[in-house]
Amino acid sequence: IFCGFAYADVPDxxxxxxxxxxxxxSAAEQVARELSERAWQLREQLFKRxxxxxxxSGLARAFEIAQGAQKPICLLEHADRLNDSTYTLRALIERxxxxxxxxxxxxxxxxxxxxxxxxGARIHLQLAGKTSPQAGGPIATEAEVLWAGQKRxxxxxxxxxxxxxxxxxxxxxxxxxxxxxxxxxxxxxxxLDCFTEFGLDPADFRYILLRSKTHFRHVYEPLCEAxxxxxxxxxxxxxxxxxxxxxxxxxxxxLAQEVTSS
Length: 262
Fold this sequence. Notes:
Blueprint: H1 25-41, H2 43-46, E1 52-53, H3 55-66, E2 73-77, H4 87-94, E3 100-106, H5 108-117, E4 122-127, E5 139-154, E6 164-175, E7 178-183, H6 193-196, E8 207-210, H7 217-223, E9 226-230
Parallel strand pairs: 1-9, 2-8, 2-9, 3-7, 3-8
Antiparallel strand pairs: 4-5, 5-6, 6-7
């Protein structure tokens, strides 16, 4: 059973069934039909609906929850596929929010500049937002370099456990009450390596700004008080109606809610 991939702009990007038999075509087709019909019957249960926020409403909700929270709040910038979107980070910096960590942001240029000046220096950065116009543009900011250097990690999380990953030039910088770790090789913050590799503890933060869809959940759902999904104009929106499909079947469920089984 292939669950499909909504971000592929192709006619058949939905769920599909592949059945293998010992040269029995009719049996394979029958089983495939039965599985497809069962999936259709369970479509509402399989389609998990979650509340999606704008940056402003997402932060407002996070600040509200944080008043009585015992654990950090996860701000999930769902649309960011390249780990350098600046929409939510810019809003947090501009509002002067404290106890924020934005891990594993992809910005080789800024990481290299931090290495050049070294730990303890203050530096003006054009931070992140460089991969495409959808990323929100760089944040012009003054930052304190807490650590800078080359980093290679052994993945400790439940996904890719034990994998050797070279993150290239890296840095940890502080902008007011916000900490940002920078990497030069694409890698997502889906486990606790983004904390432990920089000597950080999740319990010391009130807000953790992640960029993921599902892979983070095994680690961060139990770690955090709540997950606030924030949608931005980047490449992977949570609201699929924002995707400029040209080839996908927009009449398919759930893009079109009022359809019958086919």
